[in-house]
Every structure is written in structure tokens, then in C-alpha cells.
Design a protein that fits this description.
Helices cover 14% and strands 27% of the residues. By secondary structure, it is an alpha/beta fold. The chain is globular.
Length: 211
């Protein structure tokens, strides 16, 4: 396995670094757009390394991942050794699967999906690019999660549910019906409350990045 450099030097990056070490990956260091002492810029990262974007915000993770790919960098996929991933599941580059996660047979995780500890992706589920699951979130069989959607802590989806792109499912929500793009779902049973905010805001990752 190639060496790893983590983009992001905050809380999620520590979780990623521990998972990488547990799976036998050597972490060379961290990159940040406004680096404090000891944190590298992109130009200091060896070309042969894989990179992982440890940014919890789905939109920013997509933005930075695409910029890195455009610069010829390779995105790593990290699976904690305490996770259970079916051999028939498909994981695209840039995915993160934390400890105690279950990814069942024929599940598909597109690019940049983040599954936090204890979450469950059941069989034949499709999770769109740069979506995320909080701890102990679960979706039952044949569900579809749209790109950039965030499934909150302990939220659950019934079998066959379709959640659109850019949705937010609040912590503890139970989704019994399909949801259109860009809505926030709360409660049990979950109800749509409002469109999710603008996902296109520029952040310091691109506005002030030194790399």
C-alpha cells in the first residue's frame, strides 16, 4: 500500500488517521490551506502518495477532491479493519468506512462517501457521491441516497426509500417516504421541513488556499 497524506488538520482528520494506522497505512502527514507550523502545503506532498480528504462537509469534500484529481493526485479509500464490507460491495475512490460499519452485499458507494462508526448500508443500497452517514445511521435494503446528502446520527431509512440529492436527514429521523432533492427531513415519521441551504458557498479551502 502506498503512503497516505490527509487533507484537513482538524477533528475528522484524527479519526481518519487512526483508521489508516489500524489498517496498516503509513500516514506521512496532514495538509491544510492555512497551515500552522508542522502542517504541509500541497507542493510538499510527494507525488507517489495517495491522498484522503478528511473534510466532514460534503460539498467542500467534493470540491477539494475534484481539485486534487485535476492536479493528478490519487484519492485513497480507507476501510477500518473493524468494519464489515461484503466482497460484492463496490467502493469508489475517496470513501471512508469507520469501525463497526456494515456494508452488505451488492451495495454501491460512489466517490467520496463517508460512513461513520456503527452505520449500516444494507444489501443493494446505492449511496451517491460525497454523501455521508453519521454514527449509527442505517438504511435498509434497496434504498437510494442521492449525492451530497447527509444522514444524521441514528437516522434510519425503510427498504426501498429514495432520498434525493443534497438532502439532510436529521438525527434520529425515521424516513418512511421518498424525499425530493434538497430537503431537510426531521422526526418519526420524517417530514420535509425546508430546502437545504445553498451548497455552493466558497470556503477558505478555495478562497484562501496556499496550495
Amino acid at each position: 500500500m502506498s503512503d497516505l497524506v490527509i487533507f484537513g488538520a482538524w477533528h475528522f482528520s484524527r479519526v481518519v488517521a487512526e483508521a489508516a494506522a489500524a489498517s496498516g497505512r503509513r500516514v506521512l502527514g496532514f495538509v491544510d490551506p492555512d497551515p500552522p507550523p508542522g502542517i504541509a502545503t500541497l507542493e510538499q506532498v510527494p507525488q507517489g502518495c495517495e491522498v484522503f480528504v478528511a473534510i466532514g462537509d460534503n460539498v467542500l469534500r467534493r470540491q477539494l477532491s475534484r481539485e486534487l484529481l485535476a492536479r493528478g493526485r490519487r484519492l485513497a479509500t480507507l476501510v477500518h479493519p473493524a468494519a464489515v464490507v461484503s466482497p460484492s460491495a463496490a467502493l469508489a475512490p475517496g470513501c471512508f468506512v469507520a469501525e463497526l460499519v456494515a456494508v452488505r452485499s451488492n451495495a454501491v458507494l460512489q466517490e467520496g462517501v463517508v460512513l461513520q462508526a456503527g452505520s449500516v448500508v444494507s444489501h443493494d443500497v446505492h449511496v451517491g457521491a460525497f454523501a455521508s452517514f453519521g454514527p449509527n445511521a442505517a438504511c435498509a435494503s434497496k434504498s437510494r441516497i442521492g449525492a451530497l446528502s447527509a444522514i444524521g446520527v441514528g437516522a434510519s431509512l425503510l427498504p426501498g426509500i429514495v432520498v434525493g440529492e443534497g438532502c439532510t436527514v436529521a438525527a434520529g429521523a425515521a424516513v418512511f417516504r421518498d424525499a425530493a432533492d434538497g430537503v431537510t427531513l426531521v422526526g418519526n415519521p420524517a417530514r420535509a421541513t425546508r430546502p437545504t441551504g445553498d451548497a455552493g458557498q466558497q470556503s477558505r479551502w478555495t478562497a484562501n488556499a496556499v496550495w
